[in-house]
């Protein structure tokens, strides 16, 4: 338990969003979970990471390469209708992913520190971002092959 560490506004909001995503997923509210996760990924990729990179003189935070790869895997896993195997893979991926983003030395806290007194303004923009319009689930040989490759990438990591 962390006592006495003040979370910044970016960390506070995006961590709250992680909790909401966990709730939707464990309640089996798949469609809402999918839309919310796509929105969350979009916020990190299109707003948060570019802001941090800009404030670091064009250098991305070192963790971002891994987070970006994870986001790509997640997006692939969200394309077909969910199977138990896909749900399990998403859960297994998100645990270490969120751990890299949260906490005292996490990416969100680093983004708060980089943003300084503009962190609250960035958090407001994150909060106000609209829901991502969702495309229907797709299925077929190409989608299955892509999902299979994503699952193999994840398995290779855990070895
Ligand atoms: Fe992320
Ligand atoms: Fe996140």
Write up what this structure looks like:
The chain is mainly alpha-helical. It has one domain (9-158). It contains seven helices and no strands. The protein has helices spanning 9-26, 30-55, 64-77, 84-101, 107-115, 119-128, 141-158. The longest helix is centred in the N-terminal third of the chain and has 26 residues, at 30-55. The radius of gyration is 16 Å and the shape is globular. The two termini are 30 Å apart. The structure holds fe (ii) ion (2 copies).
Name the features:
159 residues; mainly alpha; 7 helices; globular; binds fe (ii) ion
> Helix share of residues?
over 70%
Total helix count? 7
The general outline is globular
What's the end-to-end separation, in Å? 30 Å
- Helices and strands, in N-to-C order? HHHHHHH
- Summarize the main sheet: none
- Note poorly predicted spans: none
* Nearest-integer average pLDDT: 95
Show the helix and strand layout.
Elements: H1 9-26, H2 30-55, H3 64-77, H4 84-101, H5 107-115, H6 119-128, H7 141-158
Helix pairs in contact: 1-2, 1-5, 1-6, 2-3, 2-5, 3-4, 3-7
The structure holds fe (ii) ion (FE2) (2 copies).
Residues 44, 67, 71, 97, 101 line the site of one fe (ii) ion.
Summary of the model, kept short:
The chain is mainly α.
């Amino acid at each position: 338990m962390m006592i006495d560490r003040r979370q910044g506004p970016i960390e506070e909001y995006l961590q709250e969003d992680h909790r909401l995503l966990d709730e939707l997923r464990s309640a089996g509210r798949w469609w809402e979970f999918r839309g919310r996760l796509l929105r969350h990924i979009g916020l990190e990729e299109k707003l948060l990471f570019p802001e941090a990179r800009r404030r670091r003189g064009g250098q991305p935070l070192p963790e971002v390469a891994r987070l970006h790869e994870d986001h790509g895997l997640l997006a692939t896993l969200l394309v077909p209708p969910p199977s138990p195997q896909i749900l399990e893979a998403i859960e297994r991926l998100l645990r270490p992913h969120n751990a890299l983003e949260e906490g005292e030395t996490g990416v969100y806290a680093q983004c708060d520190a980089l943003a300084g007194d503009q962190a609250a303004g960035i958090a407001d923009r994150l909060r106000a971002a609209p829901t991502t319009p969702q495309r229907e689930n797709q299925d077929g040989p190409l989608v299955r092959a892509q999902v299979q490759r994503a699952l193999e990438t994840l398995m290779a990591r855990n070895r």
